[in-house]
Amino acid sequence: MNTTDIINHDKQDYFPVFARYDIVLDHGEGPYLYDTNGKQYLDYLAGIAVNIVGHNYPPLVKAIAEQASKMIHCSNLYYTEVQAQAAAKLKALSGMDKVFFANSGAEANEGAIKLARKYATAKDPEKIQIISALHSFHGRTIATLTATGQEKYHQGFGPLPAGFDYVPYGDINALTAKVTDKTCAILLEAIQGEGGVHIPSANYLKEVKTLCEKYDVLLIIDEIQAGMGRTGTFFAYQQFGIQPDIVTLAKGLAGGVPIGAFLSTNKLAHTFKAGDHGSTFGGNPLACAAANAVLTAIETEQLMANATTVGKYLLEQLSHLKTQYPTLITDVRGKGLMVGVELTKPGRDIVNHCLQKGLIINCTANTVLRFVPPLTITKEHVDQLITVLNDVLPTHID
Ligand SMILES: *Cc1c(COP(=O)(O)O)cnc(C)c1O
Predict the structure, then answer these.
(1) Which of 222, 245, 262, 272 is catalytic?
(2) What value, to the nearest 5°, has the Cα angle with vertex 164 and ends 159 and 166?
């Protein structure tokens, strides 16, 4: 199929749920992607915070190839070495006590919600309420879209499961007003990603934790986007001095192979008994081999330190753009390599223009340019980004 055939086939055959851009991607190398015409793109999206070791990273490719030739899949009814290793590595890096592997972020959050409900309802059958934040994003399954505090994701999919409530993100008073002794868990992103890269104030998560302790409420932190070292620490919440009861991961965990995980402290270790949860594919040998390679790379390539240093430089350079184009850019915010640039207008035209210039970026929440590149990028890649933005942005000032 040539490029046009591919696009036409997709339009005829595939559910049109994605507002796709008109390029067909073919392969990648490091922080670069190439389309079917051989055009190079600098990748500041990384498959939406997924390709944390970049594209075609040799140790990841090798781990996947070797595992594929050995055993791609076997049932979770049996033990495998790669799964035991992945769980041990993840525990060591995260400081959590128990691990379960799923296949996606939504599934990880589903599992986290199940774990929280089982734990809390054993104490009181009415302790079912899950409170999440407005502008949050937790996934597309029925329970996780319900937990997602954005009306647009709910429309048409009712009846939604009961027991979900929402509060403005960052507002401890609003949260305090919602919590009762029927509250099971508070579910929050440590930094909101899809909602527009919103960072809470320094004390917010600590206050949330105190509230949780007071009312015997579980704290679930969704680190699916901000976790895996992206903000400079393994989890973003570590920069806010809290310890959640449950954490969820996915996106970057296996560098692009589908995976998700929820982790808990020992407090919840005995909640799930045999048969309470499961997955056919979750944590299969292929995904775990990939996760092992990524978790190893985080240490050997010092990806967290790199995210801190290069992220700081990225934030500085983008802040210069804000001074240069004050009528277009109203805010630049981020931690490590998770950065958002708030615009005074919708960003889709800018994203398209950047694509023409060989740069892949993303716009979320309509007006926020989001930068979530591989954690392997260098300052030179930041300079390349800024060069393109300096070329593109002035032509979008009204
Ligand atoms: C992407 C994302 C999810 C959903 O992950 P999927 O793998 O698409 O199901 C959940 N929470 C957050 C914070 C995310 O960024």
Answers:
(1) 222
(2) 120
Please state, in angstroms and rounded to a whole number, the distance separating the CA atoms of residues 307 and 302: 9
pLDDT in tens, 267-297: 999 999 999 999 999 999 999 999 999 999 9
Supply 185's token pair: 């868990």
Query: Is 225 close to ligand 1, i.e. is its CB under 6 Å away?
Result: yes
3-53+302-396 has CATH 3.90.1150.10 classification: yes
- pTM for the whole structure: 0.98
Query: What one-letter code names the amino acid at 272?
Result: F
Q: Is the CB of 136 under 6 A from ligand 1?
A: no
Q: Is the CB of 138 under 6 A from ligand 1?
A: yes
Chain CA centroid to CA 302, Å: 20
What is the mean pLDDT of the segment spanning 73-101? 97
The C-alpha torsion from 312 through 316 and 321 to 327, rounded to 10°, is: 90
DSSP, residue by residue, 73-100: ---TTS--HHHHHHHHHHHHHH--SEEE
What average pLDDT does this structure show over 104-113? 98
State the average pLDDT for the chain. 98
How many whole angstroms from 60 Cα to the centroid of ligand 1? 22
Distance 95 CA to ligand 1 centre (A): 22
Ligand 1 mean position, distance from CA 364 (Å): 13
For the chain, percent of residues with pLDDT exceeding 90 = 100
Alpha carbon 363 to its chain centroid, in Å, reads: 15
Q: What is the reported pLDDT for 184?
A: 98
Pull the structure tokens for residue 377. Answer: 């990028």
* Ligand 1 pocket residue status of 342, Cβ below 6 Å: no
Q: Where in the chain is the domain with CATH 3.90.1150.10?
A: 3-53+302-396
**Using 50, 70 and 90 to split pLDDT, how confident is the model at 217?**
very high
**Nearest atom, ligand 1, residue 258 CA:** 7
Task: Please calculate the CA angle 328-331-332 and round it to the nearest 5 degrees.
Answer: 110
| Residue 223 CB less than 6 A away from ligand 1 | no
Q: Which CATH class is domain 59-300?
A: alpha beta
What digits encode the pLDDT tens for the residues 322-352?
Answer: 999 999 999 999 999 999 999 999 999 999 9
Q: Which ranges in the chain are annotated with CATH 3.40.640.10?
A: 59-300
pLDDT of residue 315: 98
